[in-house]
Amino acid sequence: MACSPTDLHFVLLPLMAQGHLIPMVDMARILSQQGATVTIITTPVNANRFKPTIDRAIEAKLKIQVLELRLPLTEVGLPEGCENFDLLPTAAQAFNMYAAMSMLEKPVENVLLNLCPPPSCIISDGGFPWTANMAKRLNIPRLVFYGPGCFTFLCVHIVTHTNILNEINSNSEYFVIPGLPDRIEITKPQAATWGKGESEESTKIFEQILEAEKASSGIVVNSFDELETKYVKMFAMAKDKRVWCIGPVSLCNTSFQDIAERGNQAAINGHDCLKWLDTQEPVSVVYVCLGSLSYATTEQTIELGLGLELSNIPFIWFIRQTSDEFEGWLLEDGYEERIKGRGLLVRGWAPQILILSHQSIGGFVTHCGWNSILEGVSAGIPMITWPQFADQFLNERFITDILKIGVKIGMEVPVLFTERDKCNDLVKKEDVLTAVESLMNNGEEGEGRRKRAKEFSIMAKKAMEEGGSSHVNMKLMMDFIAQELAKNTKLIQDIV
Ligand code: UDP
After folding, report:
1. What are phi and psi of 64, to 5 degrees?
2. Which of 19, 140, 368, 397 has its Cβ near the most Cβ atoms within 10 Å?
């Protein structure tokens, strides 16, 4: 890569999970489109997932490079090659993954010391708290990126910085999150499966993350001001930090290839799905995809399938990982034969933003990962919310209770990510049927949700356009880093 010492050079360090990696790759593209040099540091398996995307960006003369580091997996008892949370043999090994990630400090620092132009800023995933001290040693600002939006983070901040959870005695009792402009009711496990309180190990990691955040120069959020105006301000005030909403970052993908291959170069050929979707009526199909990490037992998967079938509404259903047990049931039951024409079951990675933007899609069954939610919002599609763990219950409340563009499937009891193969709360086929019918109905309520979803989609697109709020915020963030760089350069000149 050409080396000019005056370039703004952002180093991006994404967490090894699709929901963090994908938006950071988008962020890299946006930064470089606005003139910055960008280096993404990741591991070989992860780099390979978005290699064609980066190659195309380089061909288009964007200044992006990817540097690969070995993740010390065998040192923490994990198999070689298991470089992403979605490749862990069991979810309980997530902490081994964190241990391996914490061993990257020296190798990352060595990379940064040898970069040209020298790094002006590190945008670190919150999951790498050690980047705070590293940034201090290198005298560069550290910005932090977590994934979810401001509303969810503000809720996490409130429940972890007040005594509210200690005042709730039962796990099934709903309480109102104090201090919010909207009435948000939640149970203790729904509010606390993320961060502090999940387990001793996760509490320790969460505290390190918060400590590192204090030492950071700001927080970069994949959201947009118009989506959660009040919450952006409240979140920045609660954290006493600069907050830049720069999304929805997925909207930076404009070519068919970038859209179809986003997140996984091995994504099924977008054309195959499109051909089927093209045969369906406009706004008639429900798209079902539960993210990159969620898990459903065979019993749960069957209930979902039967519920979709009962609804008589067209659907396209992606299953990330099938199982022998489920395949056996499919064969024996003749499910795929019965749904032929009206339903399509696809095994593998969904080209999600390609599907969501197809005119036939009228609803989205989502596990409420923040990226999926924003992608649904960007496409103007109302959603059925099926949260499981982490931030997903709070994200659900945002969609159903604040934006009012979603219908709850009725999940009550969360699972811990590390125990996600346990099923605490079976969603029955009748629940699926009720939710799908309610979402797709053309009555006043359904139309209202659809209309609001369309309005947010227009706002999302405007935010990302030249002069839109996220476009401006990205510029402001880059200006801030340029000023910090100038200050540091002057300081060094004064010393010399
Ligand atoms: N995704 C996709 N195809 C899939 C599953 C997921 O493209 O089959 C993408 C999705 O578009 C989103 C990301 O993977 O950008 C998942 O992030 P999210 O925050 O929604 O959920 P997570 O997987 O982190 O729980």
Report:
1. -125, 140
2. 368
